[in-house]
TrEMBL record:
This is Uncharacterized protein. InterPro entries: RNaseH_sf (IPR036397). It comes from the Eukaryota. One of its GO terms (molecular function) is nucleic acid binding. It comes from Harpegnathos saltator.
Length: 78
């Protein structure tokens, strides 16, 4: 909470966002370079919390296709 005092009672409203905007981003890096960046966002472009389902979707829809575009047939991923 924040209180402001003045000698007069002025009808002033001061708004402050309680939770600032955030960003949730993933990237993979290895000796050959960087894969990414991937921003975890909803359909409106707002950052979302990463959970198992969101991480799974990112792996299937973003990471695997990026790997398929590279020559990584003899690479291990863990």
């Amino acid at each position: 909470d924040c209180s402001m005092w003045d000698s007069e009672n002025l009808p002033v409203i001061v708004e402050k966002q309680m939770h600032p905007q955030r960003v949730t981003v993933w990237c993979g890096f290895w000796a050959e370079g960087i894969i990414g960046s991937f921003f975890f966002e909803n359909a409106a472009g707002q950052a979302i919390t990463v959970n198992g389902a969101h991480y799974h979707d990112m792996i299937i829809q973003f990471f695997v296709p990026k790997l398929q575009d590279m020559d990584v047939d003899d690479m291990w991923f863990q």
